[in-house]
Every structure is written in C-alpha cells, then in structure tokens.
Amino acid sequence: MIIGIDLGTTNSLAAYYTEDGPRIIPNRLGERLTPSAVSIDENDQVYVGKTALERMAVHPDEGASLFKRSMGSRKEFHLGGRTFSAEELSSFVLRSLKEDAEYYLGQEVTEAVISVPAYFNDIKRKATKRAGELAGFKVERIISEPTAAAIAYGLYQKKDSTRFLVFDLGGGTFDVSILELDDDIMEVRAVAGDNYLGGEDFTNLILDTFLEEHHIDKNSLSEKERLYFRNQAEKCKCQNGADSFFRMQAVRNGERLESLITRRDFDKKAAQLFDRIKQPVRRSLADAGVRISEIDEIVLVGGTTKMPAVRKFVGKLFGRLPDTSVNPDEAVALGAAIQGAMKERRESIREVILTDVCPFTLGTEVSIRTEGDRLESNHFCPILERNTVIPASRTEKFYTVYDHQTQVDIHILQGESRFASNNVSLGTISLTVPDNKAGEEEISVTYTYDVNALLEVEAKIKSTGETVTKLIKNQESDMTLEQMQARMKELSYLKIHPRDQEPNKVLLLRGERLYEEATGELREQLEAVTRQFEYILDKQDPDRIAEARKDYEEALDWIEEELWSGQ
Ligand code: ADP
Ligand code: MG
C-alpha cells in the first residue's frame, strides 16, 4: 500500500486509497491533522503534533515548528541541546504519521507519495525525499501540492478539456497554480507563489491589534508568553461563526484581557495581505497566457481558505464562486493518496498522465561580445524557462569565445535575473576542448528535468564527441547512501512517544500549561485532579484509565473556562 502524505508547513496528514475513494488516516489522538511540530524531552522521547505544541508552551526551547520553510537549507534547529536540520525534524513528523498509518491500517506501510509546494526547487525536493527516507519510507514520488489537490477535486475525470486554478493559502505559504486537462493529460501550466504569506499573517494581525490595545510591547514578551498569546490569537481567528467580530481573550499577570475586532476592521487591516495575494495570481495568469475569464474552475486549498474574508476576496477577484467540495485542509493528502494508487495501477482509477512544470528558469552563464569587441561575462542565458512543462529536455549550443581557449566552464544556474551572479548556482561542469580559433569549438548543453524535478545537465563537445553529464547535487546537503544510513542510526536513539500513551500525555501537558497560567484555588484544583489522574495511570488498568481520562479532560475544560471567566 502506498499512502499519500501532505507534509505541510503548519499541518501534516496522511491518506490512503480505498475502493470508495481516498480516506484520511486519523492520528494517534484520533485527529485528522497533525501539526508539523516536534518536541524532544530529556529522555530522548520525541513528541510530534499537538502533543509537541502543548509541550512547547511549557518548554519552548525543546521544540520547533515551521521548519519546512528551511527545508534543504543548512539552518540548524536546537532542541534541548541537540541539533537537527529541517529535513530531520520533518522525518520525525513522517515517522509519527507512518506509525499511525500502520496502526490504523493494520499493516506495515513502507511506501509513500509526499507532496511539496510547486515552487520548491530541486534542493528542497530532494531534502523532502530524504526526510521520507530517514523516516523509513521508500518515497515513490514527490508530487506538487496543486497537482495533488486537483486530483482530489476529481478534475482528472473531466471529459472536456478544462483549465483550472488552484488557490492554496496555508499557514505560512501561498501557492497559485494553473492546470490544464486535455485528453487525459493534466498539465501544470504555471505556478507562482509567496513563501512568506499565509494564515500566520492573519493571526499576527489579530495578535498585534490585541497587544496594541492593551499596551503590551511585543518585544518584552518571553518566548513562552509569545507562544501563549499567539495561540490565543489563533483560536480567535478560527471563529468563523456568524459574529460580526473576532473576540480575542488572554490572561496576563492574573488579569483577564479581551479585544473585540470587527470583521470590517479586520478586512481593512488585511487589505495589504490581500494585495500581496493578487501578485502571484497575476503572474501565474500571465505566465500561462490566460485571462481570468478563461479559467473554468477555481479550487480552494489550505486551511486559511476557510476564512470568510478569504472566500469573499477570492469570489470578488475571480468574479465567481470557487469549488469547495473537498475539505481544503485535506485535498492535498487525498490527491497524493490517489496518485499513490495510480502508481499501483489500481483498476478503479482512470489512468492520467500527470505533468508538472519547472518552477524556476534554469540556464547558464555566458560571455557576450560588446561593441568595442570586449568580452563581458556574467550574462545569464536561459535554457529551460520557468513554467516549462516537465519532463522536459532542451539543448543549446555554445562556442568558444577566444582563440586558443581550451577550458570551458558550464555554470548551471537557477533564477530569473539577467545577470548570472544574481541567480542561484547549482554547480559547474568543466570541459577541456581542443586548442582552436574562437567560435570553432561547439559545445551542446542539454538540460533535462524529470518528473521528480531533478535536473540533469549534459555537455557534449562536437569535435571530439566527448560527453560529460552531471546530476545536480547540492554539495552542502546531499548525502550518500552510507551517510544517510549512518545518520539514521545516529537518530535511532530518539524514539517517537508510544502512541497508546499519547492521549494521556497530551492531557498531562495541558494540565502543566494550565498550572502555569492559573493561580490560587484553581491551581490547587489542578494539582488535585492531576494527582488523581496520575494515580490511576500508575494502576495500569486500561478501562479505568479511559474513564479517568474523560474525567480529567472535563476537569481541565472546566478549569480553562474558569480561567477565562476571570473568577
Ligand atoms: P499548511 O499547508 O501550511 O501546513 P494548512 O493548509 O493546514 O497549512 O493551513 C493552516 C492554516 O489554516 C493555519 O494558519 C490555520 O490557522 C488556518 N486555519 C485552519 N482552520 C481555519 C479556520 N477554520 N479559520 C481560519 N483559519 C483556519
Ligand atoms: Mg498545505
């Protein structure tokens, strides 16, 4: 069985395919979304998801979230004295999802299709694949999130040719894609996005309004307080009821604080964010060469598209109502599961060919002869333009630029700037060519981008027939198989917290957090109910524990409620 995984910046989730279509796999807490957060305690126990977030509220230095943004980079995350890369932290999330899937499905699960944002470059895609491998998966395929979402919406089953736009506003990223379905072939025509725009920004907007109203200096907050206030703002944001305002509440120094933000005020403050949303939308339309009116369907993806303000904005921007028939939180994972099943060639799914586009322009550096017959280097020559449908292969011919030139360097670059130095360097191929006159030696350079968005560059010297190929590797973060196995072994001392104890643990952590927030009598009550629960846990009788857990949860709910009502 190949499962589909949406490894999100904020939330991750897994799905599998059944005869009745794809289904979400609930996690160890019985929930469908697992926050992409990791926390590690002094006993090398790894907590993932909601438990990790609860733990981070009390031990902020021992946890991390939002690490997907640093995927493939050399950024180091420090968790209680240990150091990890973003892909390693992601591998813990994947390990936890894998365990949950195995428990739920009652079988070993070793294969997965994992999604990545469409504009993830080569390095980030590879890092994601490695995260999967570190978690013990054979990564069957890396799929772009909008492609997965489009599959989930059943757009691959349309009879006529259709053009649709996927609007994915998640926790910290925004991603627009234009896809086209024609004769069973689904193509991504254009992608654009903003890596720093998402639900977080709306949360911050509420948070800032609240802090301002109560004259609290953001910079004076401790990490713990900052997390606490952020969580309160987050809760406030997700109230999508019929109220005409958002109500944010929090307790500080025993004092209960509240702010009411009208939806109209909120929309005004969010205008800047909406302006930023428009830019990638325009760019994707321009790149695909289509007008808004030529888009047949608009598909909403990402938790933030549940906000009424966002839906209203999208409706206005496109002059029509978007398709919301699939839960926007779940579309990507469901689509990845369908893709996994397609890979296994299940009968119940019509075969479609999926293509993707390369998110950035790939090219090389060239020297140009200027008017005064001077050689000017640092010019960028595009070979595969951004939004070229992949798999794709393009060849360009280059020539020596001066007499007796025997060394030619093919500098492989990614980016959109005219100048080579402004683009990202992916590597170099150095060739030795026969001593000859300028322009006499021809080198054909072929860039091939495969369905997994991995780049291969081939350079061929015409006169000698010599060919050099290079699979683009990121020297910094690429690992050999041995290095990877060694790192897996190193990380194996870290164990994911036992799943059967997870519901108890998450409550105990919540109790710990509330204890820090409470004072006086409430604190004493907390102490008492927590002790009682711990006492029953010690007895190790599953039925009694289940019953006590219910009581404990109710007590915590009541205490939390009391905290807000200000006694
Ligand atoms: P990602 O793809 O980045 O992991 P998701 O698609 O899971 O993110 O979206 C997470 C974001 O969606 C968070 O910022 C969260 O606050 C927001 N979100 C989830 N549910 C709601 C809701 N009901 N109302 C408003 N925002 C929501
Ligand atoms: Mg997402």
Automatic annotation (TrEMBL):
Coiled coil: none annotated. SUPFAM superfamilies: Actin-like ATPase domain, Heat shock protein 70kD (HSP70), peptide-binding domain. Keywords: ATP-binding, Chaperone, Nucleotide-binding, Phosphoprotein, Stress response. GO terms for molecular function: ATP binding; ATP-dependent protein folding chaperone. It holds the Pfam family HSP70. It comes from the Bacteria. PANTHER family: HEAT SHOCK PROTEIN 70KDA. Acts as a chaperone. Belongs to the heat shock protein 70 family. This is Chaperone protein DnaK. It comes from Candidatus Anaerobutyricum stercoris.
